[in-house]
Amino acid sequence: MPRWAGRFIVFEGLDGTGKTTQQGRAARRLRAMGFDVVETREPGGSAVGEAARQIVLNLSDLNPRAETFLFLAARAHHVHAAILPALKKGSVVLCDRFLDSTVAYQHGGHGLPLAAIDSMNKFAANGCLPDLTLLLDLDIEKAARRVQERDERKTRFEEESLAFRRRVREAYLRIAESEPDRVKIVNAALDEDAVEAQIWTHIETAIAAEDRR
Ligand code: TYD
Question: Exposed end of the chain (fewer CB within 10 Å): N or C?
């Protein structure tokens, strides 16, 4: 098994930044190198997570505090039932959204206190923290246009205002600034191949750093 097995990589960013596509591309490359890869997402990734996803994304009068608990309940179950077992088996786990989404959306977007979100996040993750987080960063207007162009039913979150998205983006950038070793900013305005190349450079650097140990 390659030495970098059992690692946890998270893709973060506003809706419309291309996280899902890029996660798929990274998974293909890692598999080609011989890694066993598990792809998952939040909210979702387990039965409880998918149930919470349906409530959170579709219930129009859910308040931010209640919504936070649903995201965290989903996360606690996802970590316990899917992420930790896969990491223990030596798989590389790729996850679309994790802890930083709650800081960016519930704290940055909705203004809930950071200290509360941080401690609830720690409780839900139970020590399971990402080794590498790729923050796909994109101008909010461009991200909103990409969401509109997608031929999907809009979720409640995708209808949030530009001001909300601006706060979310700023919160993400603050996280990246405060944890530069874990969180790498990726310019998501470039074409898909160029975004993939940036992401792959970060993953290869992480693999090489591990091999030097
Ligand atoms: P989703 O349809 O999965 O959007 P995307 O495909 O862009 O990830 O919806 C997830 C929404 O939930 C997204 O707008 C961000 C939001 N969210 C939070 O507000 N807090 C969280 O902790 C998580 C995991 C997601």
Answer: C
Longest CA–CA separation in the chain, Å = 51
Number of residues that make up the chain:
213
Does residue 172's CB lie within 6 angstroms of at least one atom of ligand 1?
no
Helix (H) / strand (E) element for 162: namely: helix 162-178
In whole angstroms, what separates CA 110 from the centre of its chain? 18
Instruction: List pLDDT tens digits, range 114-126.
Output: 999 999 999 999 9
64-91 pLDDT, tens digit per residue, is 999 999 999 999 999 999 999 999 999 9
**pTM (two decimals):** 0.94
Answer yes or no: is pLDDT of 18 > 70. yes
Q: Which two tokens stand for residue 92?
A: 């590389």
User: pLDDT tens digit string along 44-56?
Assistant: 878 888 888 888 8
For residue 42, report the distance from its CA to the centre of ligand 1, in Å: 7
The answer, yes or no, to whether any atom of ligand 1 lies below 6 A from the CB of 101, is: yes
Answer whether 43 contacts ligand 1 (Cβ < 6 A): yes
- Rounded Cα distance between 18 and 58, Å, is 22
The DSSP output letter for 191 is -
